[in-house]
User: Fold these one by one.
Assistant:
Number 1:
Amino acid sequence: MGIVSPGFHGRRRGGVTLPPGQYLTEDFPVLSTGPTPRVPVETWKFTVTTELGQEYHWSWPELLALPSETPTVDLHCVTKWSKLGTTWQGVSLDTLLEEVESAADYALVHAYGGYTTNLPLQDLLDGQAWIVYRYDGEDLPAEHGGPARLLVPHLYLWKSAKWVRGIQLLDQDEPGFWETAGYHDYGDPWREQRYQGD
Amino acid sequence: MARTAVSRRLTWRVARLAETREETATARTLVFDVPGWPGHLAGQHVDVRLTAEDGYTTQRSYSLAAPADGDRVELTIQSVPGGEVSPYLTEVLSPGDPVEIRGPVGGWFVWRPADPAPVLLVAGGSGIVPLMAMVRAHRRAQARTPIRLVYSVRTPADRYYAEELRRSHPGLDVTHLYTREAPGGEARKPGRLTIVDLNAHGWPPDFGPDCFVCGPTGFVEKAAGILVNLGHAAHKIKTERFGPSGG
């Protein structure tokens, strides 16, 4: 047990189990590192690049033409807030990667604006990740990553790159933006993997 | 992009409250003694962990308000009405009482006194805190780079660090903007930040300033968008947002 702070009682939650160190919020806080990129859907493009350099592209109409899903998921941000029961609409990475030939083990996600984040490829598969373009029944606002963002809710939210523009498949793990700046390489909220060494 | 490689493990350290200073009616600066504190850069933040007698714990992140100073760690905390943590920290925690702290965290929203570019700091409300660490680091290092602070608050009574910012120091220009109520004699009518404000009190983009913007989400979206429209390169604009949260 940690050091007790005298007179601190805290506010217990009834019935909700959150990952360690997280607290519940009803708001949807925004976190990003610079100005919000404005990406017109007319020029939007999503690219998967394999470890052999082969490229697969989707335009905005092509993305919207793919079968979509409406996952309802909990979000856990490394800055401590969790938001439960958020509903999205988008295309499963299983669908997007179905035709992609690759034996890679890792993925480096790229975003408009230059942001990157890395994760094992298997964390993008088996119904665990989507490219989403609607939130709570509305088009995804730019400050929350619109027109489209990655959603990979079983990891801390910095892995769910906003303004996603592509995924690079790699044989070797390559750390992304926050992973290079002291944050955990994998980022499992239930194991409280916030920072390197956690 | 300059990044800080942090490869050591961040451990929880006991932090004892040494002294407090009132900044506004609802914000207080807490100065902690943290034996073994590894130091930090201006702009970084820490995680604070509170534990109750029955073992219940909760954590929050707070920006550091001052540059590294041995074992001293300084936070300024806005009390959020009904919040779980901030009212305790600002009203209950007494000198000598312990909390736990780990950090420093964040290697992106940082300024180093050796950075050569002019600096523009744009603060909204409690977003001044990490920017004040930069102002203080600039003063302490007697840095020769010019630094401008544009600080938007509701009313004069909402200004943090009012006396210290009034004194200023060589190389620092401070502009206060008021959104609700301005002091007597202020020519600018109270209102939210506009392109005119940042055009008048910021740097021209061709000076290549490093811009740091911190505040609530709406403020940061507005300010960063204005800077882009004025011609500042997106990669020269670093943002940190204080979303409304559980306090």
Number 2:
Amino acid sequence: MGETVIRAVDGVSLQINAGEFVALLGSSGSGKSSMLNLIAGLDRPTSGSVIVQNQDLAKLSREELAKYRLHVVGMVFQSFNLIPSMTLIENVELPLRFAEVDRGRRESMARGALERVGLQARLNHRPSELSGGEQQRAALARALINRPKLLLADEPTGNLDSHTGTEIMEMLREFNQTLGMTVVMVTHERALAERYARRMIFLADGKLVDNRPNSPFQSNQPAAEARR
Amino acid sequence: MKLPDLTELALRNLRESFLRNSLTTIGISVGVASLVAMLSLGTGLQQLFTRRLAKSGLFDTIYVSSRREMRGMGRQEERNGPIPGQSRILDEVARVQIQHLPNVSEAYPDIRFATELRFDDKPHLTTVSALPQSAKSNDAFENMQGSFFSSETAPEAVLQKSFAEELLGKTPPLGAPEPNVSELAQPLLGKELVIRYAQREVTPGETPATGGTAGGDDFAAASYSVVSREQKLKIVGISDLDPESMRGPTRAKVFLPLKLAESLHVMQPTDLREISRAASDQPAYSSISVRVKNPSQIQGVEDAIKKMGFTTFSILDASRSLQQVFKVLYAFLGIFGSLALAVASIGIVNTLVMAILERRREIGIMKAIGASDADVRKLFFAEAGAMGIFGGVIGVILGWAIGQVINFGTNIYLKSQSIPPEHFWAVPWWLVAFAIGFAFVVSLISGLYPAGRAARLDPVQALRYE
């Protein structure tokens, strides 16, 4: 019998520059989420390299990858992934606990992040008491709390209606423009990508099929590079 | 993650599945309770025995006698004359010297003699012994009817139960039940008893001979005279102690206060020999009982007395082997007590493995937002440790309560058997600390596997898990 090797992402070589807003597009099973997990340091390539800020994630230890996820990357998911037993402020504070930030500073930072996404009235609510849009905003606040260079969003609007989805997308754009964060968003909604991303990368069956700019201007600073 | 954060998150997680974690914690506490119960029984029994033995005076007493008292050797020495520093006479000078040795609480002569006592004008022949005031705390007099001597010189007597029976003519036939001490005390307490004895009186002007042969009677006759005397005594107490028990100085049927007995200058068997060597009219003793302040100092005091040239005897070795026995008992009880805790530790493993399955997604989220393997491992360790500490504290309280109940119950039983109540249950502080610490360590060990498994969880798979 033997095992069949399934290559989720195969032979993809691409470069993402600092400050870019990139959309990874493709149908389900195209390998776009696997691509994102590689950039997030949640997964490791079996071969090839993922270079972010001049360090190859494939060569980092588990401990170093955790540090990378903590300080360099912020993540937003389709299903929000807030911890249900914690209030919003506790959820947002959680990365600061891992980063061993002082207790006193933690609360004001979390409060500030939640105010930024307009949830100052919901600090002590649990995720289940909130709407989907509010939960995703809280997840955004959590992603921002450690001031990451790279914001990775996996179908951030997938569970939201179009109105709240737009709200979230506006926020992503705002962070990209005002905080200079590089945003990599996985989506299968082409319209959304066209409206917000500056570059669109199309994947199918784990292979890169198209990579084209969506807007006339581009930064020349390479920030993240994935090759396979 | 820092310790306060870890603790906070761990406690929060424990609260989330309250019922399951409570049940696991109860399991630990039952284990700890059984351990505490077993070990406190061991400690209590040891304390009980040590207390009893200390009271019996066996373990803090050294019996000192002159070397001449030793068989064979004594005879030879007498023939060869005294060897200085080797065969000292056990006289008052020596007694005071011993009394002033460090760690000695008292040194008193063992005065014992057979004599005739008159009660209701009927003569009774018996053995009389003298007791110091400190003997009052001896457990032999615990169930005494009446009171102990009012002073060391009071003309008072305490009777042994069987002698009281003899005086009243109530000696039960062999095998018949013993009469109650209080029944015997009723007609005897406060009554008068006359003791007739032979007093030794040194004849002035004559120099006692030194050295000599074994036939000391001639010398004795030459150095002092024997006068017959009488002394009235008031019966103040009846003791139910067994005269055949292993209590050196108390193997007599009538007891007198020590100072009173000394002032009587009763002829003692040793006088005949010792007086031939005594340079003055200082009394000489056949033996002295030396009580040390603490049984642990007995060896040092014994050595010091031996250096002075006397023979000593103590039951030090017996106490050593007793400690050995208790060590084995401890280990035995400890192993049995730990069994329940071992079972409880399996409960911890089970609970935490369940928690991993339940919180798989949560672990994935934490890893995605930056938790390291070590953070996740420590979090599970903290949960296991917290259950251990809670279980330990509850278990100690439970074990203590079980001990109290059993102690209470047993004492009710002892009371129904008219045996005095005992406190054979003790939970010392070290046991409390040890039990909680042990529960904590056992929990951490149980957490080893679940924590490792949680830490190794692949975040991508964990996040996919619904």
